[in-house]
Amino acid sequence: MGDRNYKQVSHYLLKEELGNGTFGTVYRGKDLNTNEIRAIKMISAQNVLKPQEKKALSREIQIMRNLDHENIVKLYDYLETRNYNYLVLEYCSGGDLSGLRDLSEEHTIIYLRQIVSALKVLQANNIIHRDLKPANILLSDKSPDAKIKLADFGLARQISANSLAKSYVGTPLYMAPEVIKLRENQSERYTERADIWSVGCIVYELIRGARPFEAKNFGDLLPVIKTRLNDPDFLSSQYFSEPCIDFLSKIFKINPKERMDFETMCDHPFILGRPSIKPIIDLHGIQCMSEDFELSTKEDALDISEVLFNLAKDTPHPFLFYMKACTLLEPYLEDQVCASIFKVNFDEAKRCKNKTDWESSTMTRLILEMAVKLCRSDENIASHLLKENYRQALTLLNSLGPSSHIIRLKEAIKRQMDMHN
């Protein structure tokens, strides 16, 4: 379909529909001046007829214009016609967090740090988001190192440093108790600690694979929260590490005054500390391979893990290659790049888990077989490709502990490389 078949507003084309809700429809659009892809939110003028509705839209636009941060969806433009209002937004092709379940804590922490980074900007501007949930947290793209983008500021509110919010808004299953109480008691007030409760709900859901508090009826939600918090298995060590349990237990306080404040949350060891490698339930307790050999540098770990990842699909047991890569990267998880690549390998391992051959001897055999396979001479292979095979073989062998036969094999490969220089 040519561009002329799409709806055009000013210098923007509205292409495929991405989603729709109560207040409008979001399209994948195109800025004809720059050829950049944008997300364009189209809001019917019929939805903003009342003064309070116009005020809410104006507030959303003003808040987004004042927020400029890599972890917050950017508002590029705002257009108004007789029948529609248009918000031209940053396009995020990676979807949102609502479809993610049973993530490792390491994976979750990577996202959590970026969510907190965005919330720091809101905190500095005295803004409460008021609708934090997985569906409002987008991924910039589909790559393993995609950035988190906080979105949908339609319910956000800027308050003065000493004032309190009093509107009953948000998504019930992620609402803090003090917001829930507003439905029955209009004298209730809340602060940014309501957003902190929502952060706890998101973290719990990403790791555990289910929402922390479920109720069929809104009236049952607060009793369910109280019951769940009194359940000794609610934050079970079967699913959460000790730092994570401490983090969530300090968030899930019904009394907001007892709840962890924003500064304390930012400094909590679960966020700042090096992610721990703990047994993952859906890997049946299997952890990363333990060997007596350690790499000397982070660069070695990155180099070898890249080769392992690329060659995993060519082995009969790709699970072992992915987990071997995790083992090599584990000491360097404080580095964002290493943490991101670790996450990719661990997620691949979960998809093709294989418990039957979980032995170091099996891993050594697989690597040796792959190294020999890479070094087999083929008269039809180009010289530069053969040298790359040799390089990958050496890289694989560097992941094994030193032994006489491995040293001899590496020396033989190096001699072959010299012959092709």
From TrEMBL:
Q: Which superkingdom is the protein from?
A: Eukaryota
- Origin organism lineage: Eukaryota, Sar, Alveolata, Ciliophora, Postciliodesmatophora
Q: How does it assemble?
A: Monomer.
What's the protein here called?
A: Protein kinase domain-containing protein
Kindly list the GO CC terms recorded for this protein. autophagosome; cytosol; membrane; phagophore assembly site
The entry's family comment says: Belongs to the protein kinase superfamily.
* InterPro entries for the chain: Atg1-like, Kinase-like_dom_sf, Prot_kinase_dom, Protein_kinase_ATP_BS, Ser/Thr_kinase_AS
Q: Which residues bind ATP?
A: K41
The chain positions of domain Protein kinase read: 12-271
Per the UniProt entry, what is one GO biological process? autophagosome assembly
Keywords carried by this UniProt record? ATP-binding, Kinase, Nucleotide-binding, Serine/threonine-protein kinase, Transferase
A single Gene Ontology molecular function, please?
A: protein serine/threonine kinase activity
Record-linked Pfam families = Pkinase
